[in-house]
Amino acid sequence: MSKIIAIHSYKGGTGKTLLSVNLAATLAKHGNKVCLFDLDFRAPSLFAILKVESTEYWLNDYLNGSCDINKVLIDLSSKLQMKDKFFVCLANPTTEAIRDICAKDRKWEMRALGRLLSLRNTLMKEQGFDYLVFDTSPGLQYSSINAIVAADLVLVATTGDRSDVNGTRRMLHEIYELFEKKTGLVINKVLDASSKAKMDEMRDKVKVVYHFPLLAVVPCFCEILRAEGNLIFAQDKPDHPFSKILEDLAKKIESDNIK
Ligand SMILES: Nc1ncnc2c1ncn2[C@@H]1O[C@H](COP(=O)(O)OP(=O)(O)OP(=O)(O)O)[C@@H](O)[C@H]1O
Ligand SMILES: [Mg+2]
């Protein structure tokens, strides 16, 4: 079963954070106990998007071995009007913390991978979490590779941009296949998505170009841009087409129907 999900991409700005937040919220709304992780240590964003004012401990501290994961967990279930379902672990956004994590060596990263891997035991087996959702940095940063290694399923967010397509193709074959990861594509920011002919053409193209399962096609929505990161669409706009697409994606993941 795909219980730990890493959302990754070759290029920046492909929609990983938007997809991570809304996928985690959708899975939680389905009654699953979910924890969303900000593993984008170079440009943390979940603290701002989820409007967390302050926290004593960050994921950085957990990966440094200076605290337990329970100290990092923040219960945001009330945002979804639920109890005990939606948690986050945040990356430290201070300049000092970003510089610190960028300077880590390979040995530190290996220990951090061990701590990431142990979450399956501490959070899933011992504390009953159903899903862990990892929002990652783009490209081949160590923290992203660690997230991919620890995941059961990698969702690759990509756009139609030529350089993104080329890089994504390479990553699919050189990274995810190498780690033998179950992998699915989400094509985001699609224009002309209302034309059925255009969508069919795109699905066919994706099959030929990537040879990996296409899990979702997400149009470019002005409402998402206009919201400026202030809304969790899955919660605040449940009838919006974007929320419906996330519903379908969550159902595919829950039924392990990734083909
Ligand atoms: N389908 C969409 N329609 C309109 N805007 C979108 C869509 N998907 C993402 N965006 C917007 O694109 C911008 C980048 O999205 P997001 O931050 O989720 O990308 P990211 O992959 O996490 O970026 P980074 O690599 O910098 O972490 C945001 O302003 C977001 O609201
Ligand atoms: Mg992001």
What structural keywords apply?
259 residues; alpha/beta; Rossmann fold; eight-stranded mixed sheet; 13 helices; 8 strands; 17% strand; globular; binds adenosine-5'-triphosphate; binds magnesium ion
Silhouette = globular
Strand order of the largest sheet: 3-4-2-5-1-6-7-8
Seen as an oligomer or otherwise, the chain set is: single chain
Helix content: 40-55%
- Counted up, domains total 1
What Rg is obtained from the alpha carbons, in whole angstroms?
Answer: 17 Å
Structural class label: alpha/beta
Can you put this structure into words, describing what you see?
This protein has 259 residues and is α/β, with parallel strands linked by helices. The protein has a single domain (4-254), classed as Rossmann fold (3-Layer(aba) Sandwich). The protein contains 13 helices and eight strands. An eight-stranded mixed sheet has the order 3-4-2-5-1-6-7-8, sandwiched between helices. Helix 1 crosses helix 13 (241-254) and helix 6 (106-117) packs parallel to helix 8. The radius of gyration is 17 Å and the shape is globular. The protein starts with a strand and ends in a 5-residue tail after the last helix. The mean pLDDT is 94. The structure holds adenosine-5'-triphosphate (ATP) and magnesium ion. The site of adenosine-5'-triphosphate has 19 residues, from helix 1, strand 7 and helix 11.
